[in-house]
Specification:
Pfam families: GerA
Structural class: alpha+beta
Membrane topology: Multi-pass membrane protein
Number of helices: 19
Strand order of the largest sheet: 1-2-4-5-3
Distance between the termini: 48 Å
Shape: elongated
Main location: membrane
Radius of gyration: 30 Å
Strand content: 5-15%
Keywords: Membrane, Transmembrane, Transmembrane helix
Protein name: Spore germination protein
Length: 507
């Protein structure tokens, strides 16, 4: 298929060009050593921070007339203990040796360059400048503000843990550590954003995660050169293998237990400070149809609902197109008993089925978007009342057939069954090309679109790993392990058997 090869090649070239334009080396910041003149140090710090008025400067004189300055940003620092205990203790010190010993005994770090201290002040630490001293101290006074740990609103489960991530990276790492108390759990920090200086963590289990994948993730993170990074969505876009694909290549979750399960399965997690969302990578297409409830319920029920989710995906993508194709070209396949019912419903509609479907789909998107933007009680009311009122009005006015209302309702319900929001959004976009091709070519157009989607899925990768695994490449054992949820007792036996085989082969 030369057309498809040139089509995907053009997108890959555009992606490479965009990546090349984004990789820019930041300018180096000149170092500024700590001066013996304490006023010079103070002026440097205040001028570097542009004389911001929330920079607090506290002067303390020790018992032997040594001047000490404390500089910190008031909104970011918790200095209550410093005021109550430390200042009074400094005033009683009568020698340089005791002064430096007191500062060293605290949770502090010693620096010889003031330029290195600026970023620490911006993270909430307090700078200590001492008269006639060519080094300074940094005290850990960061004020931690975060909401309480609770269950994520968009990932609620019936049974199991109800702990979800918050906007504080340290708290999120604590939740993960509480679930996985194993020495092989590795956390690697990185700072992203030239201006925002956002702290991110790459988490994986050494010995389970693929070292090549871990190395590739670090390489891609180093290439991210942006001024601000406020959420994980920017990381996701920069690290995707194909940014033009409608299919999400990472899973996002706010659940600590789901994150721990993915770590044990050998995947890598990226957490970002200020964002409760964890990025799970690499993933496969069928990972989006798995839910935490699958492992908290009986294995038969878990597999049944996984199958329901796959069927819902197919319905959400193809059902409007199938309706358009049948009404426009293939009405002969309608059962005889339903012929007159459907005929009475559609014969007085002034628009072709494609216009009907587009009108209702776009109306549903408007209602959904309005429900999200409005406050929760009002948003729920808009969704229910808007759907009932508009649906009843357009049918009574003769603009839309009642059959189309049923089709759109089933399509909307099917799109909500998939547990990952990003895949649900992709499903809503994937149906529009199918609707257009169904109106032009009937079932042939639907098959053509599905074939293009299937080829794209087979070519797609997630951090270099096949996205459509275990079907492309086909792996029967992988199909049983990933798509089918086996009983926990069988899974444990398989893991023990694999461990013995690996041990015997290594010995």
């Amino acid at each position: 298929m030369p057309f498809m090869k040139s089509f995907f090649k053009a997108f890959e070239n555009q992606k490479k060009q965009k990546a090349d334009t984004k990789i820019l080396e930041p300018p180096e910041t000149p170092t500024f050593p700590v001066s013996f003149e304490i006023d010079t140090n103070r002026v440097y710090v205040k001028s570097t921070l542009h004389y911001t008025e929330d920079l607090v400067e506290k002067k303390v004189t020790t018992g032997h007339n040594k001047t000490v300055y404390f500089l910190y940003l008031e909104p970011l620092s918790d200095t209550k203990d410093m005021h109550e205990y430390f200042y009074s203790k400094l005033r009683k010190i009568r020698s340089d040796e005791n002064l430096h010993r007191t500062l060293s005994d605290m949770d502090s770090a010693r620096l010889v360059h003031l330029s290195d201290a600026i970023s620490e002040i911006l993270s909430g630490k307090s700078l200590v400048l001492i008269e006639n001293t060519d080094y300074c101290y940094l005290l850990s006074t960061t004020s931690v503000i975060h909401r309480d740990v609770g269950e994520p609103d968009n990932e609620q489960v019936i049974r199991g843990s109800h702990s979800g991530f918050v906007e504080n990276l340290s708290v999120n790492l604590q939740l993960v550590r509480n679930l996985i108390s194993h020495p092989s759990l590795v956390v690697k920090y990185t700072t992203l954003g030239e201006v925002s200086k956002t702290k991110s963590a790459v988490i994986y289990m050494d010995g389970r995660a693929d070292p090549i994948v871990v190395e590739e993730i670090h390489r891609r993170l180093k290439k991210i050169k942006v001024d601000k990074l406020m959420n994980s969505g920017i990381i996701e876009e920069y690290m995707e293998d194909n940014i033009y694909s409608l299919f999400p290549q990472f899973i996002t979750t706010e659940r600590a237990d789901r994150t721990a399960l993915n770590l044990i399965d050998g995947r890598v997690i990226i957490l970002t400070d200020g964002d409760p969302t964890a990025l799970v990578l690499p993933v496969t297409f069928f990972s989006f149809f798995q839910s935490t409830d699958d492992y908290n319920s009986r294995w038969v029920a878990g597999n049944f609902y996984r199958l329901i989710r796959v069927i819902s995906f197919l319905l959400a993508v193809t059902l409007p197109g199938i309706y358009i194709a049948i009404i426009t070209y293939h009405y002969e396949i309608i059962p005889f008993g339903m012929t007159f019912v459907i005929k009475d419903a559609v014969e007085h509609i002034p628009y072709p089925p494609l216009v009907e479907a587009l009108f209702m789909e776009l109306t549903l998107e408007l209602i959904r978007e309005a429900g999200i933007r409005l406050p929760t009680p009002i948003g729920q009311t808009i969704g229910i009342v808007g759907g009932l009122v508009i649906g009843d009005a357009v049918v009574n006015a003769g603009f839309i057939s009642s059959i189309m209302i049923i089709v759109v309702a089933l399509t909307a319900i099917s799109s909500f069954v998939v547990p990952v929001h990003e895949m649900s959004m992709a499903m809503r976009l994937l149906r529009y090309p199918i609707m257009i091709m169904a109106s032009l070519l009937g079932f042939v157009g639907i098959v053509f679109c599905l074939t293009v989607y299937l080829i794209h899925l087979c070519k797609l990768t997630s951090i270099g790993k096949p996205f459509f695994y275990p079907f492309a490449p086909f792996d029967w054992k992988g199909l049983m392990n990933r798509f089918v949820r086996l009983p926990h007792t069988v899974e444990v036996k398989n893991e023990q058997k694999e461990g013995k085989n690996n041990h015997s082969s290594s010995s």
